[in-house]
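Dear colleagues,

As part of the handover before I leave the project, I'm documenting each prediction I ran so the next person doesn't have to rerun anything. This entry is a single chain, and its sequence is reproduced below.
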Amino acid sequence: MTDTLKSLGLLGLFLGNLLAATVVPFSSDALYIATLATTGRPLACFLVGTAGNWLGSLITYGMGWLGRWEWIEKWFRVKRETLDRQKAKIDRYGVWLALLAWVPFIGDVFVIALGFYRTKPIPTAILLLIGKAGRFLVWNLILGLFT
């Protein structure tokens, strides 16, 4: 899948990063690095990669927002006490968890939890954007391609 998306250039980067920030198990980092190396357009990759990954996180946040306690209890057999403990953790750190949305595996869980437990949408969206942008900025700096 990475090769197909890579062949689409910046459009593939956008689509791949969008998908990677949802519940689709996919590495946005590998695609980002490959696209950055093949296009030689660090600013465009930074903007497109960040936009796609941020939009994907907003979709994941929205999916969490639409979730219902009853569904989680019934379909996933999670006890109400467990949900209450998780909510206490979300309440403790709040929207600041959005800065960790870029972390592989657990980042998407944080995002869906932020939506499920109804953190404030605007601050959450801003911190998601900052975290996602920071991730791709670091890749540009590591690879020496941000000029």
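The radius of gyration is 16 Å. The chain has one domain: 2-142.

All the best with the project,
I.
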